[in-house]
Amino acid sequence: MSKPRPVMIAETRAKLLAAARHAFGTVGYAQSSMDDFTADAGLTRGALYHHFGDKKGLLQAVIEELDAEMTARLHSAASRAPTRWEAFVDECVAYIQMALEPEIQRIMFRDGPAVLGDISQWPSTKGCIAALSRSLSHLKADGAIVDVDEEATARLINGASSHAALWIANSEEPQETSKRAVEAFRALLERLKKPDGDAAEARATISTGS
């Protein structure tokens, strides 16, 4: 019995994504061949063009998949923090540190910007800024941070974390660069805190149970 068409379409797309992700993550975008993708997936070039348009479209799809996985991991890291402020810092720092991982480093922070352009203009950036803005709003309500323009601050934090990740990914000494970037980033975030922010947030956490 043949599989339903939607299932076959999903399987074809998944095979091409997996083959491309492996190639992009190991040899890089420039050295990857569309013929290699299709051969590894057991498919034709026509299938690739149908689902992704071209090689650039395939890279975009791989980045979207990788970005969704990174977001899930960041949320998981934040969920383990004892306070909302620590969750916020841990999530931001974890994003920067992901630039040390070979696959993320190559696809997201080297080939991605080189092929798709400025990372600040990617569609996913808008969602990141919105999420940061919401977090800052909650922290203000808790009394954990000073009164700031949430959107402006979110854009600055997003820009700083993205630039830090790019710096790490393109550094000749990524481990050392990551250490320096994280230390400086934590110091910047600390300037947002109210002097009594920890106590205020602790009271808010107890009262809300969150």
Automatic annotation (TrEMBL):
It comes from the Bacteria. Keywords: DNA-binding. Signal peptide: none annotated. SUPFAM superfamilies: Homeodomain-like. InterPro entries: Homeodomain-like_sf (IPR009057), HTH-type_TetR-like_transc_reg (IPR050109), HTH_TetR (IPR001647), Rv0078-like_C (IPR049484). GO terms for molecular function: DNA-binding transcription factor activity; transcription cis-regulatory region binding. Residues 10-70 form the HTH tetR-type domain. It holds the Pfam family TetR_N. Residues 33-52 bind DNA. This is TetR family transcriptional regulator.
